[in-house]
Prior knowledge:
The mean pLDDT is 84. The longest helix is centred in the C-terminal third of the chain and has 33 residues, at 70-102. This protein has three helices and no strands. The chain has helices at residues 3-28, 37-63, 70-102. The chain has one domain (3-102). The radius of gyration is 17 Å and the shape is elongated. By secondary structure, it is an all-alpha fold. It comes from Saccharicrinis carchari. This is t-SNARE coiled-coil homology domain-containing protein.
Amino acid sequence: MDKNKLIAETKQRIDEINRKLKEIQDGLNGQHNDPLRTVEESTLKDLHTLRDELQAQYVRLSSSSEKMGQRDYDQMEKNIYNSLQSFNDAFTNAGSIFTRRFKRPE
């Protein structure tokens, strides 16, 4: 994938991640005495850390020189893909923790 396309797609994914994290955070607000609150906050912190790592890679990519070697670019692309996969896996695994909070009454 060319650099500009990778930058655009990475930015789009970061925006999606930020929306997901905001949804979770909004759902947690006001739930101060819930016994699972600590677990949820810890999980949310882990998701934020993964997002921050991805954002750092995005910044490095978008500010890197056009003369970046193909090998460096390939490694950066691989790192971004792996970070996205790590976030998606963690988000999926965290789903059971947050599902009960956001489950709508039937």
